[in-house]
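Let us practice reading a record.
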Amino acid sequence: MDTRISSVLVAFMLAFISMEASFVQGQGGANLDSHNNKNNGKKGAFDAASTHYSLLTPLPSGQERAFCQARGACNVKTLVCPSQCPERKPRQNRKRKGCFIDCSSKCEVTCKWRKPNCNGYGSLCYDPRFVGGDGVMFYFHGAKGGNFAIVSDDNVQINAHFIGTRPQGRTRDFTWVQALAVMFDTHTLVIAANRVSHWDDNVDALTVRWDGQTVDVPTDGEAEWRINDEREVVLERTDDTNSVRVTVSGLLEMDVKIRPIGAEENRIHNYQLPAGDAFAHLETQFRFSNLSKLVEGVLGKTYRPDYVSPVKRGVPMPMMGGEDKYQTPSLYSPLCNFCRFQRQPGSAIEGVSQY
């Protein structure tokens, strides 16, 4: 009898929590479904860890709470955001840190600026350096003026436009990512860094286009732009200029920062950049949901459950090939030798213009 009563009480409490909670995407890392995949007995980089939780109603103080559903030590524990950063998405996000909830073995909440982490999973930074969904770092140089599929799956494709320079005597280009095109459903969202001759932190070098139309992301109030057409898309500024978080519901979240190549960086790496161009480019960190097991792309394939990285470990610049597999005719084209994404009828297809 006592056992039956205990079971009923446990079931009641779980039902109460599930009624109160609404599923959200956490801040941790990558494919939120990856914990459902088996990877030869290995624990994946995102194995039901920091991203696996449900939100509970906030405390009267406004501090948000999360009910952890990940396996391990943090399972069924409730984490509360600290008073210093009571919200995951603060309204004054440019001036206040956000609460990052980690339901992995760390079982902790921390206050962090909402910017890309170039050493984190799903990052694309520098000239260009990736950290894959498997946690392995690699470089993919592409080509100056080229466009490449970073992710190509059934429901989404992300292309990158590369800018660069080739000093005299070099056999390859120095390259950086200037623009990203996110294609899904019938839509195309473009995030790009403007070409600027001299960099100024106080001047916005961000360009956003939605289905070919330029979008102005507000700098005051909630400092966000949103649209709800088939699925919700939100762009919110995470600094006064040159920094945004992009959320496409059910598909992805990405933090993007625009930065130049500074004089000291140019000297150290011997880029020999031509005068009159700051080479403004993007630093980005992606978090995906609902990627398939057959996802493709320079970065996308690293999220496959059976993926084994071919890059050479232990060297300063482990190189990843695949330019022939993932090069696309333009920033807006879903076509490449290994691409999976197919545009739906009625899609808004942009002209190539400067990209």
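A brief commentary: The helical segments are 2-20, 263-269, 323-326.
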